[in-house]
Specification:
The protein is mostly helical and 97 residues long. The protein has one domain. It has a two-stranded antiparallel ribbon with strand order 1-2. Helix 2 crosses helix 3, helix 2 packs parallel to helix 4 and helix 3 crosses helix 4. The protein is globular, with a radius of gyration of 13 Å. The N terminus is likely disordered.
């Protein structure tokens, strides 16, 4: 198996065939899950488009094995995302990259 992530000029490439990232990518597609994620994000940002961008940014951090990976045996996905959203956006605003 290759590395989980290889550094590029301005982006990272993730090994998406590992079990945890595959599950993390599938979770938001379950009925009702994206709506709950959007409600969590709307507490930190101003509008729905910004909330969707914030969710994407948070999911990228979850896919990074060295950043905030989701381990399904430790906690459910939505609970993990709640923790990630709180850490990514301390306070009422989040930094735009």
């Amino acid at each position: 198996m290759g590395p989980a992530r290889c550094q590029g000029r301005d982006r990272a490439i993730y090994y998406l065939r590992a079990p945890s990232p595959v599950l993390a990518i599938a979770e938001p597609h379950k009925p009702g899950t994206f709506g709950i994620l959007r409600c969590m994000a709307l507490r930190k940002v101003r509008d729905e488009q910004e909330a969707d961008d914030f969710i994407s940014h948070s999911l990228i951090r979850v896919l990074d094995r060295d950043d905030m990976p989701w381990l399904p045996v430790i906690r459910p996905f939505l609970l993990h995302m709640r923790v990630v959203i709180r850490r990514v956006a301390p306070g009422d605003r989040w930094p735009h990259a």
